[in-house]
Amino acid sequence: MINDFYQYISPRPEEEKMRLEVVDRIKGVIYDLWPSAEVQVFGSFSTGLYLPTSDIDLVVFGKWGTLPLWTLEEALRKRNVADENSIKVLDKATVPIIKLTDSFTEVKVDISFNVKSGVKAARLIKEFKEKYPVLPYLVLVLKQFLLQRDLNEVFTGGIGSYSLFLMAVSFLQLHYREDVCSPNTNIGVLLIEFFELYGRHFNYLKTGIRIKDGGCYVAKDEVQKNMMDGYRPSMLYIEDPLQPDNDVGRSSYGAMQVKQAFDYAYVVLSHAVSPIAKFYPNNETESILGRIIRVTQEVDEYREWISKQWGSQSQNDPPLNRNDVTLLVEPQQLDECNNNVPDDDVVVLPPVPRSKTSSNSSSPSPSVHSSPSSSPLSQSSSSTASSSSDADSDGTPCKTAKQQSGRGSSTHRETSSGVTNHRTQSHSTSTPPGSNKGGKVSTALLSQPLAPTMYMTINLSHVYL
């Protein structure tokens, strides 16, 4: 099922085309201001690990005495590239950026200046993708999992894409399975074990993550000795492999909420694949992955709008069942899993109204694309700071305190039908067995081994999520 979800959620050619047009529009403004400047794309768009509603990250290189944040902001406004109410300059941030929403596509964009680390990180991510073919599958599922719980934005305390990617890499490096580098790895097992590690066994208080030189866990006490006076490692300490003195997780103050969400997912999935699951009342009416992942109707509508604006639907896309849902899993695959999930309950997407399209869909020119009002995204939102969505119906307490207090400012709300907007402690480390070939683990950081439940009571070797 993870394979099917990955095939569905992965970027489509028309979505890439749309994003490239957004980049070109912004580049045009920048080059008009500074002809000698250089603009590069980094982040998830450059690595291909982006969700349909992910941001685009741009960095501008040039020679300025003072970063021209406000100059570019004014130019973007005058050229109507950015939605008037969306553009914001965060000049006090650790990395000053301009945040905006493209007027035509509702795509969010972050623009920074003279920051080389993002481009280098994109190259590093591509290298790890080649080494671990399962990474894209694991990362996209995890990104969707965090997004629908509002735990994917650093400025609201969640875990950013880079931190999440490094956590996944560390997990694979220190994982005892010898097939993690194989494209035929059982991704369902890896997903459950990822949730188990970071939801139950990783000691966030005492342990940090390092992926350099094969990967290892590091004691925070040792890390602090090498840092400047007064600095303490964050709750989620992740050493930046490109800049060892940079704590990638330093702004993720909601790390414990993320831990709780991971623990919840582990419990739900491990129960779903246990021998007694067949006796559960909802066993035949809910897919395994669908218990923790939901894709909203608005996302489906947005992707269909993009398809009609920038190209025809690919033959490789999952077929639409116009009666009720989009099916992401073939019946025979469910039989192999012994899950017997009916068609109308497999990680579903509600039907897409055909009327929500632009009257200008036949025009390829960005200047004559439909206005934001005809985009499915703009019908329910006008602000772009950060959005709150919880497409999950599980009710798990996964919001950070800041998010709970700031819900009133969010522009994306749960509808009466339960469909939301798209945008949306005792800790112990796990001990990789002696056969681990990926890295070293200090025994001083470990308080107990992995619980045997998953390996003994529950036979996961034949489970495919």
Automatic annotation (TrEMBL):
Domain Poly(A) RNA polymerase mitochondrial-like central palm as annotated: residue spans: 2-128
Keywords: ATP-binding, Cell cycle, Cell division, Cytoplasm, Isopeptide bond, Magnesium, Manganese, Metal-binding, Mitosis, mRNA processing, Nucleotide-binding, Nucleotidyltransferase, Nucleus, Phosphoprotein, rRNA processing, Transferase, Ubl conjugation
Record field: catalytic activity: RNA(n) + ATP = RNA(n)-3'-adenine ribonucleotide + diphosphate
Biased composition (Polar residues): 416-434
Compartments, as annotated in UniProt: Cytoplasm; Nucleus, Nucleolus
Major subcellular site: cytoplasm
EC top class, as a word: transferase
Cofactors (names): Mn(2+); Mg(2+)
Record-linked CDD domains: NT_PAP_TUTase
Region: Disordered, residue numbers: 335-444
Alphabetical list of InterPro entries matching this protein: MTPAP-like_central, NT_sf, PAP_assoc, Trf4-like
EC numbers: 2.7.7.19
A Pfam match: PAP_assoc
A GO MF term: metal ion binding
Top-level taxon of origin: Eukaryota
Family (UniProt): Belongs to the DNA polymerase type-B-like family.
Name recorded for this polypeptide: Terminal nucleotidyltransferase 4B
Native organism: Myripristis murdjan
Gene: TENT4B
